[in-house]
Amino acid sequence: MALNNIKDLSYFELNNDINIPKNGKIQLEKDHEALKVFIKSNVIPNTIKFDSLKDRFNFLMKHNYIENGFVKKYDFSFIQKLYNYLRDQHFHFKSFMAAYKFYIQYALKTNDNNYYLENFIDRVAMNVLYFADGNQKLAMELADEMIHQRYQPATPSFLNAGRKRRGEFVSCFLIQTTDNMNTIGRTINSALQLSRIGGGVGINLSNLRAAGDPIKKIEGAASGVLPVMKLLEDSFSYSNQLGQRQGAGVVYLNIFHPDVVDFLSAKKENADEKIRVKTLSLGLVVPDKFYELCREDADMYLFSPYSVEREYGKPFSYVDITKEYDNLVHNPNIRKKKIRARDLETAISSLQQESGYPYIINIDTANRDNPIDGKIVMSNLCSEIMQVQKPSVVNNTQGYDQLGTDISCNLGSTNIVNLMASPHFGKSVAAMTRALTFITDHSDIDVVPSVQHGNHLAHSIGLGAMGLHSYLAKNHIYYGSKDAIDFTSVYFMLLNYWTLKTSNQIARERHQTFYHFDKSKYADGSYFDKYVTKDWGPKSKRVKELFKDVDIPSIDDWKQLKEAVMKDGLYNQNRMAVAPNGSISYINDTTASIHPIIDRIEERYESKTGKIYYPAPYLSNDTLPYYTSAYNTDMRKVINTYAAAQQHVDQSMSLTMFMRSTIPKDLYEWKKNDITNKMTTRDLNILRNYAYYKGIKSLYYVRTFTDDKQEIGANECESCEI
């Protein structure tokens, strides 16, 4: 019986029973029943069987399902050994959602989509063999990490590894434009190309001249950023990967750009169709100066990028607005206009209530913590990637007079619950770092030379984490508590230490570092100052117990690492980033990213099947009190959690704020004297400022749960789902 002709769909009914309490209790056992029926009635009868493993590989290669090259790097006796090991681990999905998501979205199928050609073990084997690149020792280490779900490659990597007909392994891209028609044209072409090959695209528009700026000395000739936004939106809509999914993009604009009010207005539901952008995401690049002006209830000046570039000799994004603000205000050669800072602050919160946008990039915070020579000017579609860029100079033939550096994102994630059970935390992270390094080494985005160039110079990766709330609940720790914050800091300190150690080892093996390592804070040792002067190990008795079987680097260990890095360098310019996660967290039977759960029983709507329910991992009578919905959680607890991790993460993290249109009683002390319990722009202003003062680099969506049980700003970032 083929997949398109399955008669027994009772697993959906069993899964839906989870949402129907019986005798006042959640019927968690129904999910396990649904899983068994799904495997029995859907998976087993619709999976093609082979007489031997050798026959299976021969069939897949002969019919162009998988590539030949990576398989031939191994003697087949080793592949058999690898499979024997994987099978001996007796992997089983723990929930219906995990199995369903894997087989529907990730498992290789026949060309007619009627039969499965692989199970989870097969997909792990493809990843292991591909990313180990013939290294049998690394292959076995990766097999250990992936079959025990301590490591999860990003969706594009996990899905495409080994396939003959595939997309790229990278998750997303960041490009910027400068203030001329050649670069704008090149940017639109780049957006088309990058959307075609997969992944979301972030584009920085801050350098473009504002509406009303002169063109060839003709005053008022420039149309500003909005027409370019419309062109980009149409480009993403057109370049949609053969109709498989809508192209996805985000445009970033500096908050001191004169078009900022129109930029935000373009996302309003009642905006004129001529300017409204429906599918394009919006992000604001926010220097420290904006927070200062809001705090002082002062006017703020918006500066023409056209005149700023002519005065400073560099694009607008590369001028330090906070440092130069007063000079810009008093310079008569700089075109400017004045608005009230708090009016703009309120407009931002109002739009976040309505749409979830804009994302907020605290750019000065990002650059203060940046150990790399150069400047961060933007982020990506999910706001967790922050790397230095250099602008390109494009000539009249659309070629490059000066090839700049743009960014591709090579992402993967640790599963916190499972990694904490690893027999050797450091060895596990080392294997993950090497797998991600393979992706950056073999990524070749030649359709956009600036992205290709940036990747070849930086070798950047982004290792993150998922399952924090799962781990805390499993261990009876409340999310956002002192113990939870302590645990989060130590966990990400360990990721930082071991990714640094492994990157240093790779640099020593290859006698190669990332470009301009010698100009970084790693090279002069200053990056390590905070680690060689303070013990970052666990503080509380409870957290010390959790890490009792994990080696915690001492100050002396950090000193030795500092000396090693200063001597031999690092291979990877960037190493860590925490993406929002998506369907891949379900396959890992864990909670997404490091934010709280949405619901104890999460309801997912699948377009072809209707509603599917996913009980929080390890949900039981014992863990129930520790699973509070994000919508009932004080967002300062979330911000504090991310801040604890951020101090160890060299890039950023996708921090979503979860709000209710009617705020629960006593959640925020400032609401006690408010005349309304409804969410207001003031609430968002307070929380956004709190995040800034806690050192948060970026804020992703604001998701609002309305009184009629709808979600605003709940779009899922498919590109950076890990």
Automatic annotation (TrEMBL):
Catalytic reaction annotation: a 2'-deoxyribonucleoside 5'-diphosphate + [thioredoxin]-disulfide + H2O = a ribonucleoside 5'-diphosphate + [thioredoxin]-dithiol
Alphabetical UniProt keywords: Allosteric enzyme, ATP-binding, Deoxyribonucleotide synthesis, Disulfide bond, Nucleotide-binding, Oxidoreductase
Keyword Repressor: no
One Gene Ontology MF term: ribonucleoside-diphosphate reductase activity, thioredoxin disulfide as acceptor
InterPro entries linked: NrdE_NrdA_C, RNR_1b_NrdE, RNR_lg_C, RNR_lsu_N, RNR_N, RNR_R1-su_N, Rrm1
GO annotation, cellular component aspect: ribonucleoside-diphosphate reductase complex
GO biological processes: deoxyribonucleotide biosynthetic process
Signal peptide (UniProt feature, chain positions): none
Keyword Nucleus part of the UniProt annotation: no
Domain Ribonucleotide reductase large subunit: 558-580
Broadest EC class assigned to this enzyme: oxidoreductase
EC numbers on record: 1.17.4.1
Family classification: Belongs to the ribonucleoside diphosphate reductase large chain family.
Function: Provides the precursors necessary for DNA synthesis. Catalyzes the biosynthesis of deoxyribonucleotides from the corresponding ribonucleotides.
Protein name as annotated: Ribonucleoside-diphosphate reductase
